[in-house]
Specification:
By secondary structure, the chain is α/β, with parallel strands linked by helices. Helices cover about 40% and strands about 15% of the residues. It contains 7 helices and 5 strands. The protein has helices spanning about 15-25, 50-65, 85, 95-100, 120-135, 145-160, 170-180, and strands at about 5-10, 30-35, 40-45, 75-80, 110. A 5-stranded mixed sheet has the order 3-2-1-4-5, with helices on both faces. Strand 2 and strand 3 (about 40-45) form a beta hairpin. The two termini are about 20 Å apart.
Length: about 190
Amino acid sequence: FQQIDEDTKDLVDIPEYWTQMKEKGLPKVQYSTRDVTSGLTYLGFADDRSLTYATLFAEYVNWHLQKAGANLSKTVRQTDNGVEYVGSWQSKEPSAYTKAVESVPGQVHFTIFPGAHRFQADVETLHNLVEMEFYEVEDFRGRTDFLNKAYSYQLFFNLIRPNSYKENKTPWQIAREKEPNLPIEVAKIP
């Protein structure tokens, strides 16, 4: 947990998902958090992109990771400069998101330079994978079914799916190699 990249993904531009989203009241935005070293991934969902939802998601992930035994005292949480993370671009004060992240002693919020999207490549790669492996292939009965399947996909991604760009290991395998005493609960945050 040296660097965690966060971003949002608009789901309204996925043709295979759009009709289901409209008919069944499914989420319109995905909030994504990914540990850069291991690839451990956490997903959240909302109907809007907002500072409030990004802040709540950051608090949720912080709480669960700390509860599971992850050390976040030297973690950089990296985002782009979206209003969901920085609030108003004119603000002179840290945003609610920044305050939530930095409420964990030693954890800092870092924003990439405007237009430097390659700095978010790890989480953008995740967005592409989730779109192809989840949104384009799944059918949903409703919002609860969607959330259950999203959690199952997250478990699959963290515990079972090998990553060809990370030595064909799962995120959980890499995390355990780096931190042998890390409990499996860090890979199972709902």
